[in-house]
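Researcher: I'd like a candidate sequence for this fold, 364 residues long. If you have to choose between options at a position, lean toward the conservative one.
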């Protein structure tokens, strides 16, 4: 069994851990959509057929605008909702991890009780296209394709840029090109605003992202959130790639000034963590677990939250000065592709990593 398959199996057996410990105010976004203005590039309606290659190397072709869409994972649903195409969704994961989305009524739940994909349910919905985030088991994708369905399997998301690209990709696949482009550019503007604020700040705090004894290192969208918001991710500093274990001893040695964690997790219980500046000064930020864990456009909410926490004056100034004129957008060369691969784990922490990543992945 592959690491991915094992992680998925473990994922289906785990339950969420409720939030605990010190918390700050609820996530809030500054919403710079009004700064898009006339600089946001216009795009004509999608033209079909459309063809693009997905993470499996398969060329996915859609002949006409899909009227029946199925999304297999929460992050897939978030992308579709953000471009306003939810009215054409006939199947989705109707779980606690999509409860923040409106208009879920009338959609068929495509998840089993153990959170695996109910392939028979998906096939029975007769969708025109199925969207499957990278956490979806490749065997599920193959099974759906053998049943004659058109499935697009996304690459692993490792950066904020890739989230913007996925918005454009989904827009093209479901026939909402203008909405996909506009939402992607709004997302890029939010990211650029935060990045500009961080660049203007005098200092960058050291930050530890912590969940279930694990942390997020390089090549993860969470690392990009921390770094873009103006923090230095201690997990990346010590060479962790993907999602891995960080021992309390290393954490103390790195002495993070801030500790950030998702609300479904809890604060570190090891006494060693109490010696860090973050714990001693109470510099702890609890983030919306769905927004930070799911690699979707709502990740700008925790992104902005962190920037406001660390660089409030610079963020306020950036909100007044940064516009789409400051944002670099990709050339009109068709569907945005990503080329990333999944996170790796050392043999010594493989099982712990799989358990924690499974908890993270079930939200994705």
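Model: Candidate sequence:
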């Amino acid at each position: 069994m592959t690491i991915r398959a094992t992680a998925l199996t473990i994922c289906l057996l785990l339950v969420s851990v409720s939030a605990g410990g010190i918390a700050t105010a609820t996530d809030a976004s500054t919403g710079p959509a009004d700064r898009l203005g006339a600089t946001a590039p216009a795009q004509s309606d999608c033209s079909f057929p459309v063809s693009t290659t997905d993470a499996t190397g398969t060329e996915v072709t859609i002949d006409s605008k899909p009227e029946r869409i199925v999304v297999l994972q929460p992050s897939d649903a978030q992308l579709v909702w953000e471009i306003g195409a939810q009215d054409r969704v006939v199947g989705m994961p109707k779980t606690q991890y999509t409860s923040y989305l409106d208009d879920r009524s009338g959609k068929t739940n495509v998840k089993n009780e153990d959170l695996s994909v109910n392939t028979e349910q998906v096939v029975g919905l007769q969708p025109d296209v199925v969207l499957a985030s990278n956490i979806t088991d490749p065997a599920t994708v193959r099974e759906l394709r053998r049943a004659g369905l058109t499935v697009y399997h996304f690459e692993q998301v490792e950066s904020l840029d890739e989230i913007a690209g996925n918005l454009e990709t989904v827009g093209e696949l479901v026939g909402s090109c203008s909405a996909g482009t506009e939402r992607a550019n709004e997302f890029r503007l939010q990211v650029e605003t935060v990045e500009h604020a961080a660049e203007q700040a005098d200092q960058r705090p050291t930050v530890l992202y912590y969940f279930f004894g694990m942390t997020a290192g390089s090549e993860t969208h969470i690392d990009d959130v921390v770094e873009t918001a103006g923090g230095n991710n201690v997990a990346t500093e010590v060479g962790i790639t993907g999602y891995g274990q960080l021992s309390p001893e290393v954490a103390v040695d790195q002495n993070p000034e801030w500790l950030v964690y998702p609300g479904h997790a809890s604060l570190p219980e090891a006494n060693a963590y109490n010696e860090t500046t973050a714990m001693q000064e109470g510099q702890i930020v609890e983030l919306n677990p769905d927004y930070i864990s799911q690699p979707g456009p709502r990740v700008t909410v925790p992104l902005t939250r962190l920037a406001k926490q660390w660089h409030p004056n610079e963020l306020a100034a950036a909100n007044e000065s940064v516009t789409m004129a400051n944002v670099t957008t990709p050339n009109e060369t068709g569907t945005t592709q990503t080329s990333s691969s999944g996170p790796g784990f050392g043999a010594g922490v493989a099982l712990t990593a799989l358990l924690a990543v499974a908890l993270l992945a079930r939200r994705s």
